Amino acid sequence: ALAPTEESPPKIGLSLYSDTTDDPPLQPPALIKRRSARPIRSSGTITVAYSSTTGTCADLAAAMVRLIRSKIDPGLGAEVQMCKVDDLDWWDEILNPPDGEEDDDGGDGGEEKKSAADSAALSTVPPAVILILPTWTGGTLPVDPAHPSDQPGLLSVLEDVANDWRVAPNPLRPSQPSSSSKGEGDANPGLQVAVFGVGSSAYDPDTFCRPARRANELLVGKLGAR
């Protein structure tokens, strides 16, 4: 993988996406890790997730967060968060929208009420994820050394979800509440996605930014992200 060097500025490719549907409660047992940040499919949440070995993508992610925060209307109350790609439980993030999990953790009630109020206020701001992915040896996506070796990485999970017959088509496509739903909370806001690929311009066309291109194909073409 073909990490850019300081001497040769990388080419950067940007792709915007789209499409999704019902959310089956699937989750492989190996992936139970949950970070403290908001779930990426929470309304009003913009997540910048990156993978980095040389620091180039980490720097780009930090710059992206600063830019978004400087441009977004504070009145929208949207939250911009940044994390490593391997910090996310992608099975859980894709297939289990936050509305279905709010009652599982218990709590003192106050935080849940605040969360529900926040979700209602931010319902007009759809969740979005910006992926910043480097290209490593052979056109692969590097895995964080701290990532457990028995847990699959981003592209592996996306491939699995996209080809799992138990998963309803287009789980990341927006949908309205069904006639039998209890309220607006049952609507699926879907997920908006943008992918930046980073790699050396010395790579051949097939290798250059391959992880980013494949992530885009799976998220948009197979899973219904927008």
Structural class: alpha/beta
Per the principal axes of the C-alpha atoms, what is the gross shape?
globular
Fill in the CATH topology.
Rossmann fold
Could you tell me the number of beta strands? 5
Please give the alpha-carbon distance between the first and last residues.
27 Å
The mean pLDDT is 75
What characterizes the major β-sheet? 5 strands, mixed
Bin the strand percentage: 5-15%
Task: Supply database-style keywords.
about 230 residues; alpha/beta; Rossmann fold; 5-stranded mixed beta sheet; 5 helices; about 15% strand; globular; disordered N terminus
Give a topology summary.
Blueprint: E1 11-16, E2 45-50, H1 56-71, E3 79-84, H2 90-95, H3 110-121, E4 128-134, H4 154-163, E5 192-199, H5 210-222
Parallel strand pairs: 2-3, 2-4, 4-5
Antiparallel strand pairs: 1-5
Can you walk me through this structure?
Residues 99-109 have a biased composition (Acidic residues). The chain is of the alpha/beta class. It has a single domain (11-222), classed as 3-Layer(aba) Sandwich (Rossmann fold), CATH 3.40.50. It is 25% helix and 15% strand. It is built from five helices and five strands. It has a five-stranded mixed beta sheet with strand order 1-5-4-2-3, with helices on both faces. Strand 2 (45-50), helix 1 and strand 3 form a beta-alpha-beta unit. It is globular and about 45 Å long. Residues 1-35 and 100-110 have low confidence and may be disordered.
Q: Can you describe this structure in just a few lines?
A:
By secondary structure, the protein is α/β, with parallel strands linked by helices.
